[in-house]
Amino acid sequence: MIRFALIGAGRIGQMHAANIVAHDRCSLNWIYDVHAPSSEALGSKTGTKVARDPDEIFDDAAVDAVFVASSTPTHADFIVRSVESGKAVLCEKPIDLDIAKVEECSKKISGAKTLIQIGFNRRFDPGHGQLVEGVRNGEIGDLEQVIISSRDPEPPPKAYYMAAGGMLRDMTIHDFDLARFALGEEVTQVSAFTSNLFDKVAQEIGEIDSAMILMKTASGKLCHINNSRHATYGYDQRLEAHGSLGMLRSENRQPTSVERFNAKGSHWRDACEFFFIERYRQAYLRQLEVFMDTFEQGKASSVSFEDGRRALILANASYRSVETGQAVTVNYENPLE
């Protein structure tokens, strides 16, 4: 039985709490949120102790692992504190919005044997996972191209935009990680284009609502990511891999599998699942199970701190491409240069 403490009692924290409490391989021992009423409400709902200060969590020897689901600016500090207290940590993405802070965090935890897993949940989606497994097994021969489509159902509110750190670091960062996962090798060049096409709130604050990123690996494999902050048909999440012997595609999910046929047309299906918690419900559960497996078996993390670091480096390289209007060579070794 793995004993968790949860830091963060917002929307995503509430989902993680429910998953932990419902699982027979783990327990939820503590909840902490900087907004005390939120942690108290979630503690009451789950029957979990509420910490008034995160020190209570890190000082408790009975806690095996810390699930960090708090606001992004706190992630790096809680990762360091978890490592220093000898507790495994599963942390929501991103590690931080500032690569300098990520590099500082990396130095502080360097050499630690503590399990650190970053919450890039798309890797654990059954469809995406099976596609990547097929690529690795040679089902489509030599991989040549990866295409990722990721479109939100509707734009976020202004307050979210102001805290998110930019679309490429907030939304697209999932796709940068998924691209690395599917390609199986590092991206070396990035060329990015962004626009504000429809969202007046984003336009008001100088944010984007649409993006297309082209990426190339050293061996010549290509990847295309397309993003939008709206899609009238729901949460659009697709992954495609094309190779010398064929293609694999992981498609969207609908609430039901019913298809409709009538005088107006055929093969009509429900709109896609509306948002990320519904669409990636199975992925979040699998993410938790893989973390527990890794912890119990003493294996290396399947989604490491370095994976989180490299996804942010790709986001920053994409912003540089937008600013310069040129393709950018990705510098993983010295990202502050």
Describe this structure in words.
The structure is a single chain. With 337 residues, the chain is of the alpha/beta class. The protein contains 13 helices and 15 strands. The chain has 2 domains: 2-114, NAD(P)-binding Rossmann-like Domain (Rossmann fold), CATH 3.40.50; 123-283 and 311-329, Dihydrodipicolinate Reductase, domain 2, CATH 3.30.360.10. The protein has helices at 11-22, 36-46, 55-58, 75-84, 99-109, 126-136, 158-164, 167-170, 172-183, 200-204, 276-279, 281-297, 305-324; strands at 2-7, 26-32, 49-50, 65-68, 88-92, 116-119, 143-151, 187-195, 210-217, 222-228, 236-243, 246-250, 260-262, 265-268, 328-329. Helix 4 (75-84) runs parallel beside helix 5 (99-109), helix 5 runs antiparallel to helix 13 (305-324) and helix 9 (172-183) packs across helix 13. It is globular.
